[in-house]
Amino acid sequence: MSALICEISDHIATITLNRPERMNTISSAMLDELTKTLVAVNEDPAVRVVILTGTGRAFCAGLDLNEASSGQGIGGADRRPPATIDLRNTPPTVLFAMDKPVICALNGSAAGYGMDLALGCDIRIMADNAKLAAAFVKRGVVPESGGTWFLPRMLGWAKAAEIIFTGRTLTAADCLAEGLANHVVAAEEVGTRARAMAAEIAANAPLAVLASKRMMRMGLDESFDTHVQHVYLQLLPLFASEDFKEGVKSFLEKRPAQFKGR
Length: 262
Description:
CATH superfamily of the largest domain: 2-enoyl-CoA Hydratase, Chain A, domain 1
Order of helices and strands: EEHEEHHEEHEEHHEHEHHHH
CATH topology of the largest domain: 2-enoyl-CoA Hydratase, Chain A, domain 1
Structural class: alpha/beta
CATH class of the largest domain: Alpha Beta
Strand content: 15-25%
Largest sheet: 6 strands, mixed
Oligomer: single chain
Radius of gyration: 19 Å
Distance between the termini: 38 Å
Shape: globular
């Protein structure tokens, strides 16, 4: 049985963590496979939206601590710190750099690395019985895959500090109230709701969606003046695209647009 499943249909790639017996904990082999899969769907012109989800009762319970405690894999006792560190080809950095929108369908709870993985997605749809557990300091580590970057930006310094320093677990209701979850639905509806949102996004002009996400990401570190200059430069090729012409024509003809991504 594959620990990671990727299915593509109707311009939507669904990537599923598939170790339900281990609550979808991430092994070192899965990290490599997830990285390659994210890169592949981001480069696939047939894919316009990505859904990241899990099987069973958990989305992802973090890194595989059994693997680490046995002296293997991430954090293994027999692994010495590397002389150099290159994180460019790891899921958090690849996920952040993706131009395709990514929806996290939290079929169940996410802890540690799984929480960071969920925060790295653009949109989160969460089961009403799911939780986010920032248990890093309870395990003797830091939020190693983006949590210390995402949470202060999403929640502000004080709330992020409280969650990270206490290692607190947040219910789905907490996540919705704080804006960490876009929607909270019954567990059996998570996949359907995520698919519906993905289809809504995929129906739009894909080049414009990709550019919008790229501009949002760049804007995190830019001044307003610099950002609007970059946005204008991004607009120029979009104005020349077939999709722009189709968008205007379909509006005037009062019909749904048929975008080709060109």
